[in-house]
């Protein structure tokens, strides 16, 4: 017996796990395929609980099914940690926005860039003065300089002068004392939450790297973290999204799994634009984007390749990035299949060209 269903929410996971425990075969059908096939079969757009099972059964008889992958514990943990990492990262971005907005109200003439607040000097300013310009002015310039240099020894005197001048300008706003205290307290609370999220993110990365090392012991073909190509963190996140690479018989199936396969639109003389389907794993594509972003800079692995696409072939930046993502995923699969160390000369050459050059 085979249990077949659409992937809707998390309910299908409980159903298919139970089915596997009882020895049944399991697979999915594509939700979009069910919707479109229902229109073909019934000649109307209605949806009922009677129509859907019949359509799913018909699709299954036509073998239009999707494999239900049962990931091992390590891959399952990697995938969940990758999702938590992404959620934590987005929460950190939101917190930075809230902190900057609150800072404008508390320290209205603060003239430094946003990144200064998260440097050692900025951390010292928050720890000692809560970014409160009224406290800075009350302390006096000499004592302010002494306190800050003890907390951040490498801070420049010019930076301290500029901070003090910004504070002098900000206190002219003359906010009520009680209101200032509330702003400072809320700012410190948000900043502590921000630091906690950063610590949580670091802990997640450590856990993911530990799992990656275990997976590499079990499967030596998994490429090692390689400077200038892929970091341990990004490698762990990519494997979490892909699952065991041995499940894919060729790179095209892996491309389809990530939603990077090409959708063509052509009819007669009409030639539409070719686009990626985006039907696979959206977080997987985001991870790939994070991997290649530092690689497309000039002098890096994909620097020349990317700039040829963008400048000579006049591709828009997002399309050039997508081309690089597809190229990297294909090469990554080949790297896994070879089980060899990274070779930059081989990376951009076909097997015949590489053999001829050798």
List the helices and strands and how they pair.
Layout: E1 2-5, H1 11-21, E2 25-28, H2 31-42, H3 51-61, E3 66-67, H4 73-106, H5 120-129, H6 133-139, H7 141-151, H8 157-170, H9 177-218, H10 232-242, H11 251-257, E4 262-263, E5 266-267, E6 270-271, E7 275-276, H12 282-292, H13 303-312, H14 317-338, H15 344-347, H16 351-357
Parallel strand pairs: 1-2
Antiparallel strand pairs: 2-3, 4-7, 5-6
Helix pairs in contact: 2-3, 4-9, 4-10, 6-8, 7-8, 9-10, 10-12, 11-14, 12-14, 13-14
Short key terms for the protein model shown above:
two-stranded antiparallel ribbon, 5% strand, mainly alpha, three-stranded mixed sheet, single chain, 16 helices, 358 residues
Characterize the largest beta sheet: strand count, sense, and whether it forms a barrel: 3 strands, mixed
How many DSSP E strands?
Answer: 7
In round numbers, the mean pLDDT is 90
Q: Strand content of the residues, in percent? A: 5-15%
Oligomer: single chain
């Amino acid at each position: 017996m085979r249990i077949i269903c659409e992937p809707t929410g998390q309910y299908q996971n409980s159903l298919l796990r139970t089915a596997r425990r009882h020895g049944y075969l399991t697979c999915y059908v594509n939700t979009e395929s069910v919707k479109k096939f229902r229109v073909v079969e019934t000649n109307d757009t209605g949806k009922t609980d009677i129509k859907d099972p019949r359509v799913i059964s018909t699709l299954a008889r036509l073998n239009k099914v999707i494999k239900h992958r049962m990931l091992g514990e390590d891959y399952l943990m990697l995938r969940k940690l990758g999702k938590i990492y992404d959620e934590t990262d987005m929460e950190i971005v939101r917190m930075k926005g809230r902190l900057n907005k609150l800072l404008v109200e508390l320290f209205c003439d603060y003239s430094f860039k946003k990144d200064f607040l998260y440097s050692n000097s900025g951390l010292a300013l928050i720890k000692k003065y809560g970014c409160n310009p009224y406290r800075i002015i009350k302390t006096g310039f000499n004592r302010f300089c002494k306190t800050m240099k003890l907390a951040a020894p490498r801070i420049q005197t010019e930076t301290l002068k500029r901070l003090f001048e910004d504070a002098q300008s900000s206190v002219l706003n003359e906010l009520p004392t009680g209101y200032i205290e509330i702003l400072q307290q809320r700012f410190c609370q948000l900043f502590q939450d921000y630091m906690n999220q950063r610590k949580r993110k670091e802990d997640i990365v450590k856990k993911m790297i530990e799992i990656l090392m275990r997976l590499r012991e079990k499967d030596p073909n998994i490429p090692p973290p390689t400077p200038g190509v892929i970091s341990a963190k990004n490698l762990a996140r990519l494997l979490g999204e892909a699952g065991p690479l041995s499940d894919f018989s060729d790179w095209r199936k892996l491309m389809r799994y990530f939603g990077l396969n090409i959708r063509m639109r052509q009819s007669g003389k009409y030639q539409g634009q070719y686009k990626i389907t985006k039907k696979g794993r959206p977080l997987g594509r985001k991870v790939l984007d994070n991997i290649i972003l530092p690689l497309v800079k000039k002098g890096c692995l994909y620097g020349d390749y990317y700039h040829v696409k963008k400048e000579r072939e006049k591709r828009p930046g997002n399309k050039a990035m997508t081309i690089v993502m597809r190229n990297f995923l294909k090469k990554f699969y080949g790297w896994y299949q070879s089980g060899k160390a990274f070779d930059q000369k081989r990376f951009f050459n076909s097997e015949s060209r590489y053999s001829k050059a050798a």
